[in-house]
Amino acid sequence: MLAPTARVHRRTVAVPGVVELVMITVDSGLDGPSAVVTANLHGDECTGVGVVHRLRHLLPDRLSRGRVHLFPSLNPGGLRAGTRHLPGDERDPNRSFPGDEGGSAAERLAHALWGVLEQEQPDVVIDLHTDSTRAIPYAILDRVVRGRSRRSVDARCRELAEASGLTVLHEYPRGRYLRYGLDRSLPGALVNGPGIAAVTLEVGPRRGLDPVAVDTALIAALGVLSAAGVLDHPAPRHPSRVDGGPWRRESGPRTSQAGMLEVIAEPGELFPVGEVIARVRSLDGRTLQELTAPQRGFVVAVPDRAWAPAGTACATLAIRDD
Ligand SMILES: [Zn+2]
């Protein structure tokens, strides 16, 4: 059933001294779940902005119950400047949650957004990110390391991530998850704090709007919103999806010398342990190093750089999460 009275509201969320965030609410006018879709927290990751624009026009006709709050950009300054971080704050904004009213620009932004989320108590949050130019699209599941309802939050997040139709990856194992501060990412803080289900979609290249990537991410987001119960538009299995999981995110082997990084393994294609997945060449074309697969798995994303200094992870991999 379509909601006959869907309405669109626009408001701004002030982050004092930093920015004003635009928030668009599409309300079916009928009781039901509440979902939040955020985009562009990393200012150079733009696919999500395009997705939110599409949702803003689609949802009034598609929403069957409940409401969806859309944030086209959590980092308008970074979007304008083409930077991952907020202007004047070099720290990763996606390690700042739940934020601090008197902290850095990123922490103040996180605090303001957190206030909206606490007030709204959404059932689901979808955070839209992008990885690199040569990558498969995927959904990331945070580690639920705290909280009384850990198991049910984890199960709900997995259900939502699977509903994207994309390859699903668990985050790094618990120790590194905490060491990297991922429990202070937006979805990490939600699942490990108030226990709100959240999923990250990583789709498309950075720094530009790729229409194919926007379509892929839109279909995936509609699938997650369907699982959230606000509409009925399940996502089909994406052709790039890699089954046979559970998989988790892992950094690929690191280069020992600087040189041209040539990633041979095709993203999304399974490789056996020991297979050469990348090599480093000198500028005159000599092979300086071959990097081999530490385990069976596949390449998820290739770094957006051709010349890699020593110590560069040759790719983001997926390996079994057992
Ligand atoms: Zn990102």
Write a brief caption for the model.
The chain has about 325 residues and is of the alpha/beta class. It has seven helices and 16 strands. Helix 1 links the parallel strand 3 and strand 4.
Question: What does this protein look like?
Answer:
Strands 1-2-4-3-5-9-7-8-10-16-14-6 form a 12-stranded mixed beta sheet, with helices on both faces. It has helices spanning 47-62, 76-81, 105-120, 150-162, 174-179, 186-192, 211-228, and strands spanning 7-15, 19-27, 34-39, 67-71, 124-129, 134-135, 138-141, 167-170, 197-202, 247-251, 259-263, 276-281, 287-292, 297-302, 307-308, 316-320. The chain folds into 2 domains: 7-228, 3-Layer(aba) Sandwich (Aminopeptidase); 247-320, OB fold (Dihydrolipoamide Acetyltransferase, E2P). The protein is an alpha/beta fold and 322 residues long. It contains 7 helices and 16 strands. The relative contact order is 0.14. It binds zinc ion (ZN). The site of zinc ion has 3 residues, from loops. Zinc ion (ZN) binds at residues 42, 45, 129.
The ordered H/E elements are EEEHEHHEEEHEHHEHEEEEEEE
Number of helices: 7
Bound compounds: zinc ion
> Unreliable segments (pLDDT under 50, ≥5 consecutive)?
none
- Largest sheet descriptor: 12 strands, mixed
Architecture of the largest domain, CATH level 2?
A: 3-Layer(aba) Sandwich
Give the percentage of residues in beta strands.
Answer: 25-35%
Distance between the termini: 41 Å
Helix content: 25-40%
Class from helix and strand fractions: alpha/beta
CATH topology of the largest domain: Aminopeptidase
Strand order of the largest sheet: 1-2-4-3-5-9-7-8-10-16-14-6
Radius of gyration based on Cα positions: 20 Å
Mean pLDDT: 96
The total of beta strands comes to 16
> What is the H level of CATH, i.e. the homologous superfamily of the largest domain?
Zn peptidases
Please report the first level of CATH classification, the CATH class of the largest domain: Alpha Beta
Quickly count the domains: 2
Using the alpha-carbon principal axes, give the shape: globular
